[in-house]
Design goal:
Distance between the termini of chain B: 63 Å
Radius of gyration of chain B: 26 Å
Strand content of chain A: under 5%
Number of helices of chain B: 13
Largest sheet of chain A: none
Order of helices and strands of chain B: HHHHHHHHHHHHH
Oligomer: heterodimer
Low-confidence stretches of chain B: 76-81
Helix content of chain A: over 70%
Low-confidence stretches of chain A: 1-7, 100-117, 187-192
Mean pLDDT of chain A: 80
Amino acid sequence: MPTPAHSRPLADDRLIGLLRNDPASIRALYTAHFGTVRRFVLANSGTGDDARDVFQEAITVLWLRARDGTLSTGTDPGALLFSIARNKWLDTVRSAAHRHMNVVHDQRMHAAAVEPDDGVEDRLARLRSIYERLDDKCRTVLDRFYFQRKDLSTIAHELGVEEESIRTIKYRCMMKLRAHRNAIGGEDHEQA
Amino acid sequence: MSNGALDRTTFEAIEAYVLDRMSAAERAGFEQRLASDPALRAELDLEREHILAVELGGLQRTLQAIGEVELRNGGGPAWGGLLKYAAGIALLIGAALWWMLRPPANERLFAEHFAVDPGLPVAMSVTDDPVFADAMVSFKEGHYAEARSRWTSLLKERPGSDTLQYYVAAALMAEGDLPGAIPLLEPLAASPASPFLHKARWYLFLAYLRTGETDKAAALPVEEDPLRGDQARAIKQQLKAR
């Protein structure tokens, strides 16, 4: 299993499945808990699309927290998904309602806002920006290998090419990401 | 991390380590190399991040696909599927009835009635307990793990504080860790002198409900709560009606 960072064992099978990117577990979480979030969003001035967006973001946050090992052992995924989605939707409602208000920022509140625990959303944004650098060909191969956990021969068979070609494409795609990071690092260094 | 090329052998060794595809001996050898090679550790961190980014892309694609199916089906099964699985419907109905009347019903009740504790007012400029107040600000901003961590540290210094005990439990509830919150709420809910008596009973009631401990929920005297008594009575009536 990739990124074996989780230090606390998880009790819920669906969370264990989510950690493994198991589609059946992801679907089970979705179908079991989306309705509750949808009802909440619809009852609070939102649409079905709003509900889908906050719920999918909540599953993504749950996945990253599970990966980082920051979930409590006894975490109830349904309650946590509802809590995350609810907060996200309330933030959206509040920001829309108070868009034109002047907000007085307290220094302590600002300090609290940059604590390490706040890092999940920034981390997701950073990871998404990495993924966006990949072209379709790279995404096709890397997704099957790293996300779907298929072996090289299966991917080669599916795409009608030699196994060695898939291995080379995978290496080159990952090196493109690495080169981009080095370029960013170089720019940062020059600016400093 | 080197700005030069990373050879394929090293790349694939890191990959095998991240994906847990090494034998125990290979892993031990690789970890020895890591311990003495900071550049290799930097490459490991970078590759782990890139793999995570790819997996996140896959997760989002999967979620979008599931969302589209849900939308098409309107949250229920497709007609074709109904016909195809007609032979199993009778069995499924029995299972679905049982399922709807047990944990999901409790889940619905919990979702309808649970709201995160609003927290205490914090006068930012005038407080004699800045750590507690900072944690309260975090709590109100929805950073429950951070608030819980700070309050838990304070609770170790002041184990008799019912305020800290209550707010650690409130943060756990907000995080969805109901089994973690229950042992903290139980003593408060049994302490008539505590100012948190009614709130602790209410949240304990909801936690029992959500975790399927319906008998314990029914036994709590939440009807005595001057604020939520009616709400509690209505829930108990629904539980009795099952």
